[in-house]
Amino acid sequence: MTKQHSKLTLLVVAIALVVVVAISALALAKRSVVHQPTEIFIPTSTDYPTLISALSQVGVENVELVSLVGRLKRLDQHIKPGHYILPKGASAMRVVNMLRGGAQTPVKLTFNNTRTLEELASRLAEQIEADSCALATYLKEPSTAAKYNLRPEEIIALFIPNTYEVWWTVTPEQLTDRMAREWNKFWNESRMAKLQRTGLSQVEAVTLASIVYEETKNIGEMTKIAGVYINRLRRGMPLQACPTAKYAIGDFTIKRVLHKHTQVKSPYNTYLNRGLTPGPICVPSIAAIDAVLNYTSHNYLYFCAKEDFSGTHNFSTNLAQHNRYAKRYSDALRKAGIK
To answer: What angle do CA 85, 90, 96 make, to 5 degrees?
Structure first.
């Protein structure tokens, strides 16, 4: 055998070995490392060792192989943060391709029963990457409200409670832009036509809805209560809404609004100020907003919770009748030991 022939033989063997190794590696890379659907959150600025550790912690097997495949495909230089659902049976190759390509799964964002921007920011931060401080700071910036032709007190009106699909990595600015788009969808032709009947602007309708929502969660009575407030607004009467006194004080645990509570000086106290509050006092439900748009036309100017604590109300057209109902309710509170 000549020297040249020996070199050729060695080269062929070497190539064959490389091919065998490559085929074996490819086979390994295609072997399942995920045995059940697995959720993982990859924060922004995650480094490669932390990523591999996170994969191990959520139950991905053979992370050493994933790490090797990842380096070969330069995942260590192209980590895309986000929320991922790794499918059952996913191989190391597929996991790497998903993370490198940013094949995120959206998260479902929900929020309701929130009163303040801080509370809203906290609720949102539980579901996305941005922290509550960053969200609250952005929402409170006057420039943020101005971007949508709103005052800072009105920015919370943009957040119509529903379930939305968003990227976990959505920024405060992107999220607010999304809510503004949803706001425009919400105020469709039908709702805008009904809005004209109220004589209110869109934000004013949401503000009134927030008061109605804090007064009652009884959908059947919302339109009637909205009608009372519409009547009072049109007559120039103060709304005298108990929830606004609670909001002015900042104490939502108050079970019984007393005279001293109604005297707290605040633009949100509708016992001392005529008209609506400067902005919503909560994030009202869609049902409450629609109740304002579909308010019941009647002559009632007052309402008071029924003494049976059923959550429903007695309605009155005059103060004398209202005072009688109010006394019944007050007596029932006293009897029940509610101060």
So the answer is: 80
Contact 225, 212 (CB under 8 A): yes
Phi, psi of 43 (to 5 degrees): -65, 160
**Full 3-state SS string of 53-120:** HHHHHCCCCCHHHHHHHHHHCCHHHCCCCEEEEECCCCEHHHHHHHHHHCCCCCEEEECCCCCCHHHH
| CA 153/CA 140 separation, integer angstroms | 8
Residue 32: helix, strand or coil by DSSP?
strand
Three-class DSSP category at 205: helix
Cα–Cα distance, 333 to 251 (Å, whole number)? 19
- Segment 55-97, tens digit of pLDDT: 999 999 999 999 999 999 999 999 999 999 999 999 999 999 9
How far apart CA 300 and CA 225 sit, in angstroms, is 9
Can you say how many angstroms the Cα of residue 114 is from the centroid of all Cα atoms in its chain? 9
Indicate the domain borders of the chain: 32-105, 107-186, 189-298
Q: Could you tell me the pTM of the whole model? A: 0.85
pLDDT in tens, 245-282: 999 998 888 888 888 988 999 999 999 999 999 999 99
CATH topology of domain 32-105: Dna Ligase; domain 1 (3.30.1490)
- CA of 314: how far to CAs of 133, 176, 213, in Å? 43, 40, 17
What Rg, from alpha-carbon coordinates, does the chain have?
30
